[in-house]
Amino acid sequence: MTRSAWSLVVLLVAAVLVAAVAWVRAEGDAPAIAAPESFSLGKLPRALAVDLSDQGSGLRTASVTLSHAKGEAVVAQRSFSGNPLSGGGPATASLEASLDPEALGLAEGDAFLIVEARDWSWRGMLRGNLATTRIPVSVDLSPPRISVRSGLTYVRRGGAALVVYRTSEEPARDGVRVGDRHYDGIPWPAACPEGDAGCRIALFALDVDDGSDTAIRVVAEDAAGNVASARFDARVQERQTPRVPIRLSQRFLEGKIADLSDAWDLDPGDRVAAFRTINEERRRQDEARIRELVARSQRQPLWQGAFRQLYNSKVTSLFAERRVYTVDGEAVSKATHYGYDLASTAGAPITASNAGRVLFAGNLGIYGDTVLIDHGLGVVSLYGHLSIIEAKEGESVTRDQVIGRTGATGLAGGDHLHFAILVGDTYVDPREWWDARWVREHISVRMNP
Ligand SMILES: [Zn+2]
Fold it and tell me: 429 CA distance to ligand 1 centroid (A)?
């Protein structure tokens, strides 16, 4: 071949190579933007997170711009390293914007967030492929207004109460806050005489161990995160919590505690240490499990009227006893008794204390074979130490329906029923719920005046 022919071949090969590179580098796939479909902004600053990706040439720049009635502002911006020749930007990245309505001078109403991202492609006159997403923003700077409708509310320490209130807008979350515990509210138009739609109720409880300065208030939060709270006239009635010494017999330590130690792999050499582990650590785990179950309580009330105490039973131990366990006159452990112990004949039938749905039926550690019944609105009854369970999870039960037989499973010294009632996370005195007058005056009349 002649020299000019060779030059032609070299030129052609070079042209093909340039064309190939150009074809790759001028890819037309714009970056992908993953962002919320809509965004609501309240009085407090709120963060927006956007995920970006580009598999072709990699990401080059990204920005978030807020467009509102009074103008535009860039609220986040990033540039990513790479180069025009080979691309080489990151395949994924995220962009975070903090939106402060006050600093941005936002007024209530509608606005938009515009997210833009470019890649390192040669397209767009070498500026890259452009992706754009528009997110509608609603700006709501006013918290809901709360007006408490029920009057003076009495609540006993270790007891429950119901409050009626109205909110000016449909809240995203509302209820009663007691210290740092939250009790959900639900819409309940019947509780307000005018029957209006903003009427709501919440059942709450004061824990036996709540301090005397524990704040009780109605709270409501809207979709934009604006929070309102309202105090109401709540009178706390005190409760006696008698100290009850319980002697641990050798028979109990070598019988029940030996059995539980075997079942739960505890040191067989030290029965007292095993008792302490069961009474303290195991109790903590079981109580945490109960709280997980209670959190699934359905919002609508299922109970009707007063709850029923176990038929023909004798109370052998009261709510809120401060138990101190002793061995040879020495205190080895303690626990508060958050229920009633009811003794009948051995293997006596246990009935549902009110209508509800079986939330749990199975073994629950120190409570042995246990049934939990959900009565709705956070009210749950617990039946422990059963010898036989005659209820199925998910089953609806009526008051007085048989759900099992008394026994001594779990940490029980003899055949009895441990009966407890929880309102949300809190154990309350079942005596209130057994009392038809208390239920009528403190709960029913408030729900349906
Ligand atoms: Zn008990």
Answer: 13
